[in-house]
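Re: the 172-residue chain
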Amino acid sequence: MEADGLLVPGVGAYAACMAGLREIHGPRLIARRLSGGRPVLGICVGMQVLFERGVEHGVETDGCDEWPGVVERLQAPVVPHMGWNTVEVPSGTSLFAGVEDQRFYFVHSYGVRDWSLVTNSRTRAPLVTWAEHGGDRFVAAVENGPLTATQFHPEKSGDAGAALLRNWVLGL
């Protein structure tokens, strides 16, 4: 709880990742940190589990429910989406400062393909970065106050990924 930042990594299947998180009370820890304004960064499946639920291989699994939305199979001719890809970065981003036009490394078959948050005068919409694979558009990253996440792997994305992680750390 006292760490400057919490990293939620994820590799493999949504349901397995959530099972592992539940064993250590991860959803509760994430929620408590966020309620206190403490930064959390999710990467790959670690981003996916921050959403309401995921559907993989016909199995629906509840997520951490920090954001509404469903993680589902990409509708692209070739899956998994594996390799380097560009992203559509929103204006006002601090996470992508200096690397807005760079490519990042993705390895995934599932993502959030249709997503928008309802906001009002008291809440600010998150900054959502999008990417496309095989004609299918999906959420590539989200900046939402203390909660930040990337579908791609910044740690495998060379200098651009290192700069992105540096931006996150500098914001702690």
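Residues 118 and 125 are 8 Å apart (CA to CA).
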